[in-house]
Structure formats: C-alpha cells, structure tokens
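All the exercises in this workshop are built on plain-text protein records. An example says more than a description, so a record of this kind follows:
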Amino acid sequence: MCSSAQNVLACLDYAVGLITMSPLDEHLQRVREAYGDRPSLSLTPSQAQRMFGLEPPMCVAVLEALLNEAFLVRTREGLFVRQAIRNEPTDLRAI
C-alpha cells in the first residue's frame, strides 16, 4: 500500500492523523467502524454507552455528532441506526 512516493506520503498523513486525534475523534472513528462492520446495528443510548465503554456525557456527544453529520439517525423507538440502512427498502419486492 505504501510502495510509491505518493502512497508513502498518504500513509504518513494517515499515521499523523491517528496520532493527533482528539478523544472525541477517536470515539467517533470507533463508533463509525462498529456501524460499518455491522450495518444493521441499532442501539439505544444506554446500549451504545456500554458497547463502546463511554461515560454518559461523551456518549451523548458522540451520538449527537454522528446525528449532525447524518451518519446516524434516531428512530421513533429511540434507536440509533445507520442512515443508509434506514433508507434501504425492507422488502426486496419493492425494488
């Protein structure tokens, strides 16, 4: 992946970005990855807090940030789900 000069620079930029991430950025990245790995994941705030090992104020900040960037949406039932998953048809015959 980091074989050419351009790729080496991109890899270095990525590594520096990881080193300089704020705690909020780190938590945002971790939650995005979890929802990316499990696209059908749907969590209440309490479940998210336990799953990601976050204190309540940090969990609220993370969930609100992901709502604001439209990565997550909150269902009527109070579950946090991926935006793309919520918009996909649930019935394949509807396609």
The chain has a mean pLDDT of 81.
